[in-house]
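note to self: dont lose this again. the chain is below, predicted strucutre after it. 344 aa total, dont forget to put it in the shared folder this time
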Amino acid sequence: MADVLVEARHLKKYFPLTGGVFRKVIGKVHAVDDVSFKIYRGETLGVVGESGCGKTTLGRTILRLLEPTAGQIFFEGRDITHLRGKELRELRREMQIVFQDPMASLDPRITIKNSVGEPLVVNGIARGPKMREMVLSLLQKVGLNEDHLNRFPHEFSGGQRQRICIARALALNPKFVVMDEPTSSTDVSVQAQTLNLMKDLQDEFKLTYMFISHNLSVVKHMSDRVAVMYLGKIVELNPGDIFERPLHPYSFALVSAVPVPDPRFAGRAQILKGEVPSPINPPKGCRFHPRCIYAQEICSQEEPPLRDVGNGHLVACHFAGELDFGRSAQQEYAEAMENGGVTA
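---
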């Protein structure tokens, strides 16, 4: 049996909405709503979905940067849901995060040496010359050098700043790292360099990643398994290539919308109707049913459980495996390339 490093059980995170003179609670934002999953040691779990689906909130709640409303979080089999004080500080050394915006996550008033070295100082690992030596070693691992030690964040490009954030996340030699859209602020060429760097570092440091992204192509390149989120819930957890066999209608819509580098395959995306419902008052039953072209009466009445349809493939759909989506442009293009390329 694979070694489970991180596990969430029925995890919920609600944000209260207040109003009126006395700031009474008048509602809740269901950011993460009854989510359960496991992340195995050494793997990369990709998390995808539309903006506002709860991806970032899920990652931050797993790390205890946000307090869960309900449910349990386990790390190496230990319940960390209610850790406080010294125990929680010690846990921080094992779990780190690379934020989406590197400029916002680096203090503009301190040098890179002190920014990357701060975890070493705070945890009593190194100071002075030893800290400088360890910081330099980390920067060299992410492709920077000694000349960068005494510069400030504004003196670097977006890709370099993200490398600095990765170096800082690795300073305490963690076991688990949440990557929150680490390439969203960089161009395509820098994205490729950053992704390859993360893969190399994962092999070198034996890291486990939770990789959050909008970009399905990036997730495909990085991930061993892919969790698809919609309105605070995981609707599909695919153990293989989600491009080949999406079983939830929302997953197929995401896959079909990925751009294909050939105009003959354009215009074959399944366009979702309507807007994402409000997380303050999510729909009854399946949360995707107001936008699903395959929805039937049961979909608006009963919430489908996240069930295993074979080989660890989990889907929250009443008709999982029964629906015929056809083939997306991505799938057709991939098949054409496998068969010798696309011909005019």
